[in-house]
Amino acid sequence: MASSSASITSKKSFICLLLLLAAAPFPTSQAGKIAIYWGQNGNEGTLADTCASGDYGYVLLSFLCSFGNGQTPQLNLAGHCDPYSNGCTHLSSDIKSCQAKGIKVLLSIGGAAGSYILTSRDDARQVATYIWNNYLGGQSSKRPLGDAVLDGVDFDIEGGSPDHYDDLANYLSGYSKQGKKVYLTAAPQCPYPDAWMGKALDTGLFDNVWVQFYNNPPCQFSDKQHLGDLMDAWKQWTKSTKAGKIFLGLPAAPDAAGSGYIPPGELRYIVLPRVQESSKYGGVMLWSKYYDDQSGYSKSILPDV
């Protein structure tokens, strides 16, 4: 039998080991965050309720769908409110409520059905100035969302021309020098490099990139026997992209996209363990809040994100 002093030492060592284990992070639990697109369906609940759910780390207000080439930028929040009659200024309190919970709220520009193009570097500068004054830390008498200061800008560029988005990113990032950091994020398609955002992403100015692994059969998940297509693209993005974190972008329900939906169980037990092997893994992006409400997708995957 061990001496009493040896027994005490052994017990102390065991207690220390338990404390170390308790303090150690578990990489498969809350290692990442969920980003959600909100704004394109009036039946998806309020912005305040979206943030109060506790499911999301980023909310992307979609979309500033028209800008560039001298046109007046236009915000479209579908059935939520009408920005042209000052009907969206009440969202200011919702935005502040989200931010008070530590949730980043960004303006998403572009979208699949927008009318946008940047025709020159000066055009990009003018768009950046407009966004700064109307949505970020600048001043304007006609701020569509009231006096709340958004955390940054999300680039969801899916048409037009790829030119000058690198200039836009540079101009927007430059405003960080005036105080509050301007976060930049992007939602490229999974074929690498992205046809629209390649040059902009090469600037290295983007904090998060949520790659759309859907509506792109060559690089999306089809079934567990064909995980390689997604993983090959994921490795290319995490290896080559100059960004802080890379997110796995997915539809939140089968009818949220034409293809690329991953059932929650297969995401949790097959896909996430693989993509989380990368130090650049940041979480999951979902399209969209409306479809997430229908499916409960975020709540079913959150423990493993």
How would you sum up this structure in a few lines?
With 305 residues, the protein is of the alpha/beta class. The chain is built from ten helices and ten strands. It has an eight-stranded parallel beta barrel with strand order 1-2-4-6-7-8-9-10, surrounded by five helices.
SSE layout:
Layout: H1 4-23, E1 33-38, H2 47-52, E2 58-68, E3 71-75, H3 91-100, E4 104-111, E5 115-116, H4 121-135, E6 152-157, H5 165-174, E7 183-186, H6 198-201, E8 206-212, H7 227-240, E9 243-251, H8 264-275, E10 281-287, H9 289-295, H10 297-301
Parallel strand pairs: 1-2, 1-10, 2-4, 2-5, 4-6, 6-7, 7-8, 8-9, 9-10
Antiparallel strand pairs: 2-3
Helix pairs in contact: 4-5
Helical percentage: 25-40%
- Order of secondary-structure elements: HEHEEHEEHEHEHEHEHEHH
CATH architecture: Alpha-Beta Barrel
The amount of beta strand, in percent, is 15-25%
The geometry reads as globular
Considering the protein shown, what is the CATH homologous superfamily? Glycosidases
Low-confidence stretches: 1-30
Distance between the termini: 47 Å
* Average pLDDT for all residues: 92
What is the C-level CATH assignment?
A: Alpha Beta
Largest sheet: spatial strand order: 1-2-4-6-7-8-9-10
Structural class: alpha/beta
Q: What is the radius of gyration computed over CA atoms, rounded to a whole number of angstroms?
A: 22 Å
- Please work out how many helical segments DSSP would assign: 10
How many β strands by DSSP?
Answer: 10
As for the number of domains, it is 1
- Which sheet architecture does the biggest sheet show? 8 strands, parallel, barrel
